[in-house]
Each structure stands twice: as C-alpha cells, then as structure tokens.
UniProtKB/TrEMBL annotation:
Pathway: Amino-acid biosynthesis; L-histidine biosynthesis; L-histidine from 5-phospho-alpha-D-ribose 1-diphosphate: step 9/9. This is Histidinol dehydrogenase. It comes from Enterococcus haemoperoxidus ATCC BAA-382. Zn(2+) binds at Q256, H259, D358, H417. The keyword Metal-binding applies. GO terms for biological process: L-histidine biosynthetic process. One of its GO terms (molecular function) is zinc ion binding. Substrate binds at S234, Q256, H259, H325, D358, E412, H417. The gene is hisD. Binds 1 zinc ion per subunit. It catalyses: L-histidinol + 2 NAD(+) + H2O = L-histidine + 2 NADH + 3 H(+).
Length: 426
C-alpha cells in the first residue's frame, strides 16, 4: 500500500497529482462504443445478437427471458436466500418510501395559483452487471425506488452467461417486480434501451452500474435518455483513530478491494500505530480471500494510507477525496456527522460495516464515485420522477402584475413578450 504523510496542504497536493496521473485515455473506448451504438441503431436485434456472440460467447435465439425461465430460476434458489432477499426488500422499501415527494399548490396571492406536479417516469431501464460475480442486491437497489416512485414499466438488461442468467438474479428480479428481462449486456444493451429495437423497448432513463464500456455508453446516450450517473470503480474511505479495531478496518478495506482491480481502499488516520496494524492485518487477511488476485492488485495499486496531523485535518482530506463509501471509526462517531461534506454513503461506528449498506440496511448502494459525491447523490426515489410547474392567474391578478412584466420584457428587448401581456387589457 502507498503511504502519504505530511501537512494537510502537502497531502492534498499529492492526491490531486495522483488523480491527474491516473486519468485514463479512453479515446479508444469512446470510439468503440460509438460504433456499437451506431450498429444497434441501424441493425437492432441482429446487432444485439452479434455483439452477444462476440463479447459474451453466447448465441441467442431469444433476447427476452420468458416468464417460465424466470419462475424456474426463482424456484431453484435456496429458501434462505429468498428469505434474505425479501428481508432486504422490506428494508429498502421502508427507507426509500420516506424519499417520496408530493404535488403542492399555493394560493399566497389572491387570484394566483402556483404549484408543482411530481410525475413518475413512464419506463426505465435497469442495467445489472454480470462478469466475475452476480449482483442480486443491485436488482433490488435499482428497481425498488423506481416502483415506489410509480414507474409504470421497468425493463432489466443483464449479460448472459452460458446462455443463461444466474438464478439468483432472476429471483431478485421477480421479488423486486421487474416487468421484462433481456439477456444482453455491455454497451450494446445501453444502446438498445436508449434507442429501442424490434424487441427491446425504448426507455426514458437508464440506471445501474457497469464496466467502462457501459459507463461510456451511458455518457454517449445521455440526452436521448436520462441516466443516473457515470459510475467508476468502487471505493471506500475510512476515518479512524487509535480507538479503532485494525482487524475491522482491514476487513472493510478488503470488502471493496475484492470488487475490482481498480477499486480504491483508503484509510485516513492520525495514528501511525493503527496504520501499521491495519496494513499488517490486510496482508494477513488477503491470504485466505477467495478473490485474492483481484483484491491484491487493488490494494497494491490503489490502496492508500494517509497519516494526518489532527482529526480536523482527517476530515479536510476525506472531504476532498469525497469517497463513494465513508466509514467513521472514531470515538463517538455520531458527533462528527456534520463534519462530513462530501460522501456517497456514510457508515458510523465500528459495527456499521460498509457491506451492511450493500445488502441490508435499506440505504442505496448505487452511489457516486471518483469524487463525484461533491455534486451527485445516491440513487433514490427522486431519480425516477420529473417535475412540472403549474401557474394560474385571474385577469385581476394579472392586471396588478402587467406593468412590471412588460417593463422587464422591454428591458430585455423582447417586445412580443410585453405585448402578449398588454393585449389582454386593450
């Protein structure tokens, strides 16, 4: 792991320099994705089947997963897994339903009505990753907030594997209430959702994490459809002092490192002794980790221990990092809550381990990465609605405002605007 020690300004400068050095040149990926999208627009389902054969080594007859296949997949999943998914669903719903917003109208001035309508999106697309692991939790996290928002139709895409989708993914989709599942992945599935094909319907918004090709495709189709965010590799930041348990910290850092060789695991502490204990514990735990090869590369290339001079400096540094997941393992962690300015999801105390949020607490695990927590939020019910404004004026109310409106319109050189108001009183 890399260490950074010094004054706060020096550490922040080093972090900024490191960020600049690790920026990838993605021009090749951008062009590849652009061509994939073009082929899907022009050739529809045929392009999807060809790309599935090329990228997933799967020859598909049907892109749509049948209801029978979904039900059979559900039935093959162990009862205890179904029970765990149902319990997670209950927690996700109980948390996210508090985010629901409602219409409002006000009549503060006589003859004037102003308001806002909260309107659910008609149809959304959910991308569920495949590859080295299956993520039923991502199904629940993306679909359930949309259901609470009132989305009428939810389309799911996920990469095929040996001509089938993992049973646990099908079970999670059934539990969450997905309307249709298509066994396609990668950039071509994003293109299909954005533009529609003979089989795949066009959606209004695409959500869900994916690899660099999926993220690039989402970026390129934005504007044709809405997207949630451009997600990068997973990351965790931990703030800890001498009271923290190094075994817990090491385990939590590895919980993100095992996701991806590009995952970032960062500890910020004011205790050199704790830092040394954590580093030693990480390598001890790595020895028995099934995904050791992935986690070891992530720790070597993107693992970071930062020694800060004070607790205040620790928060300054972590707020600049703006991690996807932030654990606060300090004495009396709740008292520090308002020192946190930038983080996707916050975990307070040594027993709020990050995987609690990944699977069970009900908070969402689709989160802003790569410092974007400075201006992005976790996925929520609010991502699946849009807002329309409402205005009503009586003639008497407009009469009181007409001179001010016409004055401002003419000040901007927009005579027709002024006349549109004044003609109602000629």
């Amino acid at each position: 792991m890399k260490w950074l020690v010094g004054e706060t300004t020096e550490i922040l400068a080093a972090l900024n320099e490191d960020a600049e050095l690790t920026q990838e040149d993605n021009q090749h990926v951008e062009e590849q994705v652009r061509q994939i999208i073009k082929q899907v627009i022009e050739n529809g389902d045929q392009a999807l089947k060809e790309y599935s054969k090329r990228f997933d080594q799967v020859e598909l007859e049907d892109l749509l997963v049948s209801e029978e296949a979904i039900n059979l997949g559900y039935q093959r999943v162990e009862d205890e897994v179904i029970e765990a998914l149902e319990a997670a669903k209950e927690n996700i719903i109980s948390y996210h339903k508090k985010q629901k917003q409602y219409d409002f109208m006000d009549t503060e001035k006589r003859g004037v009505l102003r308001g806002q309508l909260v309107l659910p999106l008609a149809r959304i697309g959910v991308y569920v990753p495949g590859g080295t692991a299956s993520y039923p939790s991502s199904v629940l996290m993306n679909v359930l907030p949309a259901k609470i928002a009132g989305v009428k139709e939810i389309i799911m895409v996920t990469p095929p594997s040996s001509n089938s989708i993992p049973d646990v993914i099908l079970a999670a989709a059934k539990i969450a209430g997905v309307d249709k599942i298509f066994q396609i992945g990668g950039a071509h599935s994003i293109a299909a959702l954005a533009y529609g094909t003979q089989t795949v319907p066009k959606v209004d918004k695409i959500v869900g994490p994916g690899n660099i090709y999926v993220a690039t495709a989402k970026k390129q189709v934005f504007g044709v459809v809405g997207i949630d965010m451009i997600a990068g590799p997973s990351e965790i930041g931990i703030l800890a002092d001498q009271t923290a348990n190094p075994t817990y910290i090491a385990a939590d850092l590895l919980s993100q490192a095992e996701h991806d060789t590009l995952a970032r695991a960062i500890l910020v502490t004011d205790s050199t002794k704790l830092a040394e204990q954590v580093e030693k514990e990480i390598y001890r735990q790595l020895d028995t980790l099934p995904r050791k090869k992935i986690a070891e590369v992530a720790i070597k290339n993107h693992g970071l221990i930062i020694i800060a001079s004070t607790v205040e400096a620790m928060f300054t540094i972590m707020n600049e990092i703006a991690p996807e997941h932030l654990e606060v393992q300090l004495a009396d962690p709740i008292s520090y809550l308002h020192e946190i300015k930038n983080a996707g999801s916050i975990f307070l105390g040594e027993y709020a381990s990050e995987p609690v949020g990944d699977y069970f607490s009900g908070t969402n695990h689709v989160l802003p990465t790569s410092g974007t927590a400075k201006f992005y939020s976790p996925l929520g019910v609010y991502d699946f609605v849009k807002y329309s404004q409402v205005t009503y004026y009586t003639k008497e109310a407009l009469a009181q405002a007409k001179d001010a409106i016409a004055l401002l319109a003419r000040k901007e050189g927009l005579e027709a605007h002024a006349r549109a108001i004044e003609c109602r009183f000629d």
